[in-house]
Amino acid sequence: MTSLACQSLDVSIAGKNVCSSLDIELKPKQFWGLLGPNGIGKTTLLKCMAGLSAPDSGTVLLENQAIGKLPRRVIARLLGMLQQHTVYVFDASVLETAMTGRHPHLSYWEREGPQDKQKALDAIRDVDLAGFEARSVTSLSGGEARRLAFASLMVQEPAILLLDEPTNHLDMKHQVRIMNQVESQVTRAQRCAMIALHDVNLAARYCSHILMLFGDGDWQAGPVDELLNLENLERLYQCPVETLQTPAGKRFLPGG
Amino acid sequence: MIPTTLRRSLLLLLMLMSVGSIFFASATGSVTLGWSEWLAAIQNSGSQHGELIWRLRLPRAMAAWVVGAMLAMSGCLMQVLLRNPLADPYVLGVSGGAAFATLLGMVFGVAVGFLPWLAILGALVSILLVFGLARGTGPWSGTRLLLTGVVTASGWAALISLILSLSPDNSLRGMLFWLMGDLSYSTLPLWSLVVLAGSFVLTLALARSLNVLAMGETTARLLGEPTRHMLWLVYLLASILTATAVSIAGSIGFVGLIVPHLMRLLVGSDHRILIPAATLFGGLFLVLSDTLARTVLSPQQLPVGVITALLGVPLFLLLLNRARLKGV
Fold first, then answer.
1. Which CATH architecture has domain B4-325?
2. Angle at B268 (CA atoms; ends A77, B89), nearest 5 degrees
3. Considering the domain A4-254, what is its CATH architecture?
4. What is the predicted ipTM?
């Protein structure tokens, strides 16, 4: 089973400390939420974990091998990441774009087969874009482009999913739909996910584990029940927070 | 866009039209041959018409096809490289270096046969200059490459203006023709065919990677592309194609910009179909343009670059406008 581990990882950006000696391991069936205020370095950390940038020190291990030493092609078959922004410049169709998720699985001269196409069609349907297959990606709205990018990631079928604010630009229905899909990837397909979020309540509802970035390299990681509490959230966001008891569990509101 | 099922038929059609256009070009000109005359002449290369066809028109038409094909392919590659649909084969200064070296050769009275080699030399200097200055050690930076290339191109443009302003009047005409792109003195060296065929096969093998690279550097890396190596390969490939084309026919404008766009509107952005379509259409387009350049004001010959722009601009605007009406 594929796992992704950070070992005494030091990451910084523009002289700002994102995390100091971070030690966590993402294991199958774990759903991690990555929480922290704006500009704290969530994206920087995710990029580092995807092997897109090198840490200051420490290592990221993908299947027990240093990610920096693995060819991108090998990484892409195991790990996929949804970026925070999706901009399409050339007008490929929605179906073609979803199908790019098969790219790491095909050799140079190989073309996508009927199975690959079916995977793309299923993923497009799952993000509620059925009927859009022939549309040009440049004509999509922000939310639609976001869902298409998520569909491409599902077509890629990585065992490790890193998602940078996947619910950006999405209405409530589609937020839940995407989160449900990630949840089913994690529980049913035995994959693991880490998801950067600003919505604490989505994290409370879906995540099994939480990583909090407090700034200046401080972090805390652990099961969701231990970490998601008033004290940590007030420290994290530097604002008063109120708790609300609901039938589904504890939820949080910004306080006055 | 045309339906997926018709795209292969389009390739076949473009191939047949390419061959047809070369035959048509060989029959048309100062002496226009009818069907039976042409058939007789092509079978007898010793006759007067046979010489005209085999020695002059066919080589020129084939040179036009190869140059058009190379410019179109290079345009497709540059647009992916810079992730900008406005990029053309000349934007990074390859043609500027070639033009400067060629004009310098003309000033010093270098034999016409050597001018293509000077063009290649100038282009190579420019490629290496831009490559060396933009490379750095960090991750791939399209912006740095674009800025380095564009500034280098402006430098060459200044040097070209300098040569033009210092040259005697009687050599200006030849220089201007060369700068606008002209096939009058073109020959088709064997190695240029090797460059075309080799780049075509390599580009087709990388076509799916080009699709992914067009989505941005980070996306491409996440989908398994070693982007740094891939993008430098694309840069070198596009530059070599441009350098070869420019050495044969000078800086013919618009083919490398407009042909990829026209084909994008027709077949979409999948490079597995876009590259062959653009390559074939680029060749076809330049053969027809050059035939027009030879005949439209005959006996006066126009530089083919004037025709490509005069044909390409309205055609392009028309198609773009129709595409917008359909909401593409």
1. Orthogonal Bundle (1.10)
2. 90
3. 3-Layer(aba) Sandwich (3.40)
4. 0.93
